[in-house]
Design goal:
The structure is a single chain. With about 400 residues, this protein is mainly β. The protein folds into two domains: about 5-295, Methylamine Dehydrogenase, Chain H (7 Propeller); about 295-399, Thrombin, subunit H. It is built from two helices and 30 strands. A hairpin with a 2-residue loop joins strand 6 (about 65-75) and strand 7. The protein starts with a strand and ends with a strand.
Length: about 400
């Protein structure tokens, strides 16, 4: 079991607890560092380097957009290598190619118009001072592990069902994961799209396919199956998980759509059917992400054996947050088993250890990291204990 945790938080740049290194076994903070809204972290495949998405609009001055920061891990300490603009607004996710050569960043964009828009001009990023556009940016990783030059930026345009300020008025790339062969699967919650892309050996992106998600569901996070032939998607607007086959042409085919809450929830809150292409203006205020009265999925993880999938559910007003447990059959399809409920409303992220016996959960609204300990997640009782108080915890990495 790995006892060391690196925790990213949504705290602003002057807060003492921006990134935290903690000891899970001894229930204590070992070191903490100031960082600007470093809620999402990424570990290099060799375990030496850490990268943080700084989800800001003004990382290097007003109107400059978000940032990314690099660190070298020295036992229980971090030493910053460098940082860079993310060349977009509010970077929401980042991932490394399997050779750790390129860092790929999902710039989510804002929910309103701001003067940040980057494109590539003469081979270099340039702020064209236009509407805030969601994009995916690629960065070369330097030999010292630092963030190097930006090699490409790909923008995305359009809207989803809940346009008119309902959280889907423009594209919002929220998450991306990279397969061992270099295929990128990205969730565009703004347009209800699941994207397949590739990055070549020069750091240039190509769009391979776009798959329509269920209308208005807003795909948020993705996880690969153990064989990486399936993508598991959790949706932000409605409590469902989707299973998608990835074929040889890098196209996604929906295989399953399954509930992430107990059956009685859907009797209380039936999932609406959408006939129109886009909502009416007065309907946007009832979008789930705006009203926050129903369950919103936030994170998804597969255990090491590939036979259990976990999905986090947030419930801001009318109930408690939970983590849904699925078993995975030999075809990669999901079977609902149970929900683990927590005394909070907002589970932003969580992690599972390699033995599938300990889960660390960020209770973001409570300022708490909790640890679930169990012998067998499906059958046996489990213990939930609070072990660390940190304001606005988010991403958790076990090292």
């Amino acid at each position: 079991m790995k006892d060391r945790l690196i925790i990213g938080t949504c705290n602003e740049k002057d807060h003492d607890y921006g990134i935290v290194i903690a000891d899970s076994k001894r229930k204590m903070i070992l070191n903490s560092y100031k960082a600007d809204n470093a809620g999402i972290l990424c570990l290099s495949h060799n375990g030496k380097y850490l990268y943080a998405a700084n989800e800001s609009r003004d990382f290097k001055g007003k109107g400059s957009g978000g940032g990314i920061s690099s660190y070298i891990i020295c036992k229980d300490k971090l030493e910053q290598i460098n940082d860079s603009l993310s060349y977009g607004s509010r970077p929401a996710y980042l991932a490394l190619t399997c050779d750790d050569r390129f860092l790929v960043v999902a710039n989510h964009g804002s929910h309103s118009s701001v003067t940040i828009r980057y494109g590539i001009a003469d081979g270099k990023p340039e702020n064209t001072l236009g509407h805030d556009i969601s994009n995916i940016a690629v960065f070369l990783i330097n030999k010292d592990g630092g963030v190097g030059e930006c090699t490409d930026i790909m923008e995305f345009f359009g809207h989803g069902y809940f346009a008119h300020e309902g959280g889907q008025s423009v594209s919002h790339i929220h998450c991306l994961k990279i397969r061992k062969d270099g295929l990128i699967i990205a969730c565009d919650r703004g347009r209800d799209k699941i994207l397949a892309l590739r990055v070549d050996n020069t750091g240039k992106l190509s769009l391979r396919s776009e798959k329509d998600a269920p209308k208005a569901y807003a795909p948020r996070y993705v996880e690969f199956s153990k064989e990486e032939d399936l993508a598991y998607i959790c949706f932000e607007n409605y409590p469902y998980a989707g299973v998608y086959q990835i074929n040889e042409e890098d196209e996604l085919i929906e295989k399953q759509l399954i509930e992430t809450m107990p059956e009685e929830y859907y009797e209380m809150y039936p999932t609406p059917k959408f006939e129109k292409e886009v909502c009416d203006e007065n309907e946007a205020k009832f979008s789930p992400i705006k009203a926050k009265e129903t369950v919103l999925c936030s994170d998804v993880h597969l255990n090491k054996e590939g036979n259990r999938l976990y999905v986090a559910n947030r419930w801001f007003k009318n109930g408690h947050a939970s983590i849904c447990v699925f078993t995975v059959d030999e075809d990669g399809l999901l079977k609902y088993r149970k929900n683990i409920f927590f005394e909070c409303h907002d589970i932003r992220n969580f992690s599972i250890d390699e033995d599938d016996t300990i889960m660390h959960v960020s209770l973001t609204d409570q300022g708490m990291i909790q640890k679930c300990i169990f012998d067998n997640m499906i059958e046996n009782p489990f213990i939930i204990e609070s072990f660390l108080e940190i304001e606005k915890p988010s991403s958790i990495i076990q090292i």
